User: Fold these one by one.
Assistant:
Number 1:
Amino acid sequence: MQVAVVHDGTIHPGGAVNVVVEATHALNADLYVGFSGKEAEWWEQRVPNAVSIQRTTSRGGTVNDIRTAWSILNLDLREYDIVLTSGPAAKFFQPYDNQLHLHYIHHPPLSSLWFDGSLFAYLVKLIDRVETSAVPHLVANSDLTATRVYRQYNYEVDQVIAPPVDVAKFSPNATRVENQIVMVGRLEERKRSTIAVNAFRSLPEYRLKLVGDGPLREKIEQDTPSNVDILGYVDDATLRRTVEESIAGVFLAEREDFGITPIEYMAAGMPVVGVDEPNTNNQIDQETGVLVDPTPDAVADGIRTAVGREWDRETIRSRAEDYGSERFRTKIREFVETIDS
């Protein structure tokens, strides 16, 4: 059985890249990437077989998405029995006769284009719906994404398989800094970074380590409380150390299709102060954290509750292990074997 994995592309590797890398290992597959901010050598160090990469330094928005979809549409992959695609543009791949095609959905389109009433937007949405309905097998990364797919396309996914999280890189037994809280994520409105920062105005006894960069950084820096440190983008070693040293992690992102960051907090054995919204409230329960409304006062209260309670680090860690890479490899391999039988 010959398998190819086709990913539409990425400039900065994230959760979607973890999915395609682990899928190539699970299925012993070759990899095709539509566009990439990384050189081919970066991918070759992470996947088991051949890699075909279109190198680029700028994604270019909707126009580049269309260009990528067109290039994937014209891929000649007739030598493969099964093709797994990942990313919105990749589902435009056209399989040959007797070739199995399955598509992993990280999220339905959330861009402003989908709420645009223009003729161009209408045509793009129409084509997207037609192409989605033509894919014989869909896998979603969460129940929330599966629900959104049904609402947007009137199409039920075959299975939900959560993305892989590298829980092994975090230790639940590190020495903690007794007043340190961490928040990891892009500094943008959807991540609600300013809400977390404002919560610490009423928490002078605690210190927030804000890991990440983004369009809100300048605004936050103009009025940052003295107990908030903006670290920006950091390397893996610094990220791991900062998370492991903290006593709680904050995650407030809205419309989060899955949410890898809360699982990484749990892998470090610490409670999560998470927003009480899907999909975050599907990941956190009374044994792993505190759910809060997305307001500074509620977040501050949630942090006090989390810090003031005794937690079983091993229990929290074990929840994270449910999302480990081996679990993902097994699930995706079993699904492919099922549809290929």
Number 2:
Amino acid sequence: VVDRRAIQLPARAARPARQAHLELRFGAIELARPQSKFLRHLPKSLPLAVVDVCEINAGPGAEPLHWRLITSHEIATVDDAWRIVEWYKQRWIIEQFFRVLKTQGLKLEDSQIGTADRLLKLVAIAAKAAVITIQLLQARDGGQQPIRVAFNDNEINALAALNRQLEARSKRLKNPHPPDSLTWAAWIIGRLGGW
């Protein structure tokens, strides 16, 4: 064991957010070239680094975390190894982005656009929408981002007008969030969707 640290694990579908106490090990490895005669032109081996983190004392009912991460990045220090762990933690956001983009939200793969140029434009627009959708989900789940990370002045003004209409429909349901927060926008958009 080279180092120990606690990290915050975000909530997932089957797991609530929690703090994980981890033990870290890291080192260098070499991956040998396959023995196929068709690959002899490749180097005999590939130098890589491995980072191994194991959770200690996961708690009752929690499956202990154990990640073995192989990377081409040089790892010379403990901080280098923890950086790889932090990058790996971000994969959940990346996976969520592609889920929203491709299957569970914008269904980009169902597009019938025939040219690469038009498809590229659609992907650019859809990617922005997917990022905003994820930011709104994070805000709903307790994130504290400012509204301007996702919306411009005209969009904020439109949200304010919608908020006034939504609040006028019910005396009991008032937007409890500060107007400069993304959570405020998430509340409005959620109400539009029937929440």
Number 3:
Amino acid sequence: MEFKIKSGNPEKQRTACVIVGITESRRLTPEAKAIDQVSKKHLSNLIRRGDMDGKAGQSLVLYNVPGMLADRVLLVGCGKERDLDDNKYKKIIENSIKQLNQTGATEAVSYLSQLPIKGRDIHWKVRQAVEITNGNLYQFNEFKSKKKREKKTIRKLVLTVPSRRELPTGDEAIKEGLGISKGVKLTRDLSNRPGNVCTPSHLAIQAKQLAKTYKAIKVNILEAEEMKNLGMNSLLSVSAGSAEPPKLITLEYYNGQADKKPIVLVGKGVTFDTGGISIKPSPAMDEMKYDMC
């Protein structure tokens, strides 16, 4: 998935789809107004006929809009403007990507990153758009012997900023969003792998690979004998119920400011938890595999 940052008028975008918003009061966003103007009230006429009123979750795909270079215009309902907050914005972006993928368009220019969100700047909005888009496109097909023939999905998304001076901010936000997306994807892949594949040894290999890829990360892995010498009998007693050897994995990140106190995150890293599995209600038993997350 490719992301780009851009500033410019929506009517001048030569692309498969331009994405703009409309609020519940039937008010077009500034970018949608620009399209309405060049199309001689094409959007206004649709709204007046009741095709769309801007409620959250709504969307409408328009083809061959007069005055537009884009093949399509995707109108996305944004709900009440005064209610636009972090969660509403995330849902709007998610809805836009879902609807976009129904069209068969492989590229698009989105102006939703310019929606006014309380207390949030363009950096946050662009970064969130990257993370949400990648999250929405995620699929885990690692163990499928017969994969369904994939339909066309979005491969390139251009996110917009109000002016050229904000292009560097947008580029940095995309970079951060891609970094976070990679971490989330790795986490989801590991959690989706079954316990007989994602063993403690498998996790240790993944940790070593991270340290090999990123020079700012150092890894230290304690084996069973080392844990025994340290008196870590509680952990060892749990692992004694498995044929798989235990691993205690420590990852250290050395790219922060030297004068700042370190932040320590402690996770269980349990690859399969059988404790209490027999007394779990049936619908909840499968969720225990996600204890490792």
Number 4:
Amino acid sequence: MIPYTQYRLRVLAENSAGQGPWSEWVSFRTQPAAPPAPTDLTEEQSFPHAIEISFLPPSPPHGVINEYRIRHTPSGQMNYKEVRVLANRLQCSDISKRDRLCYRVVDLEPEQEYEIQASAHTEGGAWSDWSEPLGAQTHEQ
């Protein structure tokens, strides 16, 4: 069964005497689970000390996405800095990007290449895997 999906079912008993009547319909929803990773990380704008990114939320979400983790590291290094952001804080100001989520990664060094990734979390579920890394560079000061 698919996580966090609404189902309806009914049963029919059968034995050597034949079939019984169908039961009433019963509706239920499966439990949430870890979503797939966010996709299509894109650099929207670069600054000397920040990079603005956008990405697509997980699909299917496997629950209600309530939080994201966004991490970055200078390219070629593994010393990630990570932030957690509530899902409702990631709306893009550009109306043409209403299907995407936006975030500004800050406190970066000028003229530095960074790898940026995102991960999603469902209420009552778990964290997704990290997205594919996005390579992006800050501008000179």
